[in-house]
Amino acid sequence: LTREMNDYSRNLMYEKAAEARDKIASIKKMSEKQKVTGYGNKNIDVIGTSKMDKKIYVSVLSIKNGKLLNNEKYKFDDIGDEEENDILLDFIKQFYSLRTDIPSQILIRYDIEDLELLENWLSEKSGDKVKIKVVKKGENDSLLKMAEKNAVDLINMLPVNRGKPLNKLFG
């Protein structure tokens, strides 16, 4: 994006350069480590989704010791008519099968099948109890809305991880 902004500027395309500059600023702001109040020393992953047409965008906010440390973004094409809760279940299985650092709590929006079985698998994998909490409202709703907003923002913003090898879930 920086190169693109400079190219626009050299070619006297100042409006395009300003748009690229604003995207760069937004990306930097989203990637900064942010303090998340009210979560103390908890380790939490917040998984937000946004479905549009035959694509789904996923944002995983990782909170470690009360600080927002990471925002991983994924885009999956050609998901067909699958419901978000089914896609979320597949995503969680694949995402955490590749991880060794599994948080004690995972926040999601949709009820998913075999929640207890999934929690047991994650707990066994991590060596500590893992709780998946389906958030409809309340104290965790603002965090989940932030992850969902990030997923919506992916529709208009780059770069997006192509979900490797996670994109194999839907293809």
Order of helices and strands: HHEEEEHEHEH
Compute the average pLDDT. Answer: 79
**What global shape is seen?**
elongated
Oligomeric category: single chain
Strand content: 15-25%
Task: Point out poorly predicted stretches.
Answer: 158-171
Helix content: 25-40%
Q: Which class of secondary structure composition applies to the elements?
A: alpha/beta
Number of helices: 5
Total beta strands: 6
Give the spatial strand order of the biggest sheet: 1-4-3-2-5-6
Radius of gyration (CA) equals 17 Å
| Main sheet specs | 6 strands, mixed
| End-to-end distance | 29 Å
Describe the 3D structure.
Helices cover 39% and strands 23% of the residues. It has 171 residues and is of the alpha/beta class. Strands 1-4-3-2-5-6 form a 6-stranded mixed beta sheet. Helix 1 packs antiparallel against helix 2. It is elongated. The chain starts with a helix and ends in an 18-residue tail after the last helix. The C terminus is likely disordered.
